[in-house]
Automatic annotation (TrEMBL):
Residues that span the membrane, as ranges: 273-293
Recorded superkingdom: Bacteria
Keywords: Membrane, Transmembrane, Transmembrane helix
Name recorded for this polypeptide: Terpene synthase
Protein's organism: Microscilla marina ATCC 23134
Length: 344
């Protein structure tokens, strides 16, 4: 019975991800419509520093936050109204702009920019990016209600703190424990932000669970970005390990922790199973990626050897038979009672 239910869940997830992973997908079209007034208004003050590529980056951020908020809404058996959808999407736009601003800043300008990002209404925006950020921030604030305003702001500020702290990932001697804290904060608080826009309070247990689930997502992203981050001199979850075996062990440790915390919280069973199935599938896909890294290096992964390959050639092709043969059985053997059993 589990097999057929998982087959249905996999089909549903595939359609859902097509909406988010393709620029012609439904979610992309939705956020493009939201962005259009801001893009048009920016034409009056843009000096060329805001490029189409940067708008595209914001679009992807908006899709990611909105998609995640939708998953939390399904989990809590509710629907996102128009204002909540916009709040979620605009939080993604703000994080996209702040990411660009923080990453490109010289050290001496950081304090001023931090002050501006936290309270743009208290400053006069000077640059095109500051003007764009202010416009999105005002729209974001206008979408918040009495039910979600306090917690949404709290997690937005925490997400900004994490973005600023992530500049330390360029430090070659960054201690491992500091790195892990930075990584967990970065996606942990962003994931909490996606949940915070729902007009439902977040208690301590749910906070911890979502934080650890976000950390798992960050570790998955870091494995996927191993080549890009390593080439750019960015320390991440994956490039601190000498072997893919060590990466897998640490990843599964975090998976066990996050899934265990999730199962300790009561939600409607059907929505709980599908929610956990989603993240189980994400882990399966990244395990296939790790297998591919090992394959590229002829069974002896070394980061230096891995980085000699062109970036495009390091991405796993999910629809190749050998990858389907690895991933599909694990997804179809998902068991809510023992969610990590099929991952080993």
């Amino acid at each position: 019975m589990n097999f057929f239910k998982n087959l249905y869940r996999l089909g549903k997830l595939t359609l859902d991800m097509r909406s988010a992973n393709r620029e012609s997908g439904t979610l992309h079209k939705k956020v493009q419509k939201m962005m259009q007034p801001f893009i048009q208004a920016a034409e009056a003050y843009n000096d060329g520093s805001i490029t189409p590529r940067m708008h595209k980056k914001m679009q992807w951020y908006m899709v990611e936050t909105l998609w995640m908020s939708e998953q939390f809404a399904q989990l809590h058996q509710t629907k996102l109204d128009n204002a909540t959808q916009r709040a979620s999407a605009f939080s993604g736009a703000l994080l996209g702009i702040s990411d660009i601003l923080i990453d490109d800043l010289p050290e001496g300008s950081l304090a001023h920019t931090q002050n501006f990002l936290y309270a743009p209404v208290n400053h006069t925006p000077k640059t095109p990016f500051e003007k764009l950020y202010t416009a999105y921030f005002q729209a974001f604030e206008s979408c918040l209600s009495a039910d979600n305003q306090v917690q949404t702001r709290e997690y937005y500020w925490a997400s900004l703190d994490a973005q600023v702290a992530s500049r330390r990932q360029f430090e070659p001697d960054l201690p491992s424990e500091d790195l892990i804290k930075i990584l967990k904060d970065k996606c942990g608080y962003t994931t909490l932000l996606c949940r915070a826009v729902l007009p439902l309070p977040i208690d301590a247990s749910e906070h911890t669970m979502i934080y650890e689930l976000g950390a798992l997502v960050q570790f998955i992203n870091d494995i996927n970005d191993l080549h890009k981050d390593s080439t750019q001199g960015i320390k991440n979850f994956a490039n601190q390990f000498d072997t893919t075996r060590a990466m897998k062990k640490a990843l599964l440790t975090q998976t066990t922790k996050a899934f265990g915390l999730f199962k300790n919280i009561e939600h409607q069973r059907k929505s709980s199973i599908y929610f956990l199935f989603i993240f189980h599938s994400f882990v399966v896909v990244i395990l296939a990626q790790l297998r591919y890294y090992e394959h590229l290096c002829q069974g002896h992964y070394k980061l230096e050897r891995f980085l000699k390959f062109p970036p495009k050639s390091t991405k796993v092709q999910p629809f190749l038979w050998q990858n389907l043969r690895f991933s599909i059985p694990k997804m179809l053997n998902f068991d809510f009672i023992h969610p990590t059993a099929s991952l080993n």
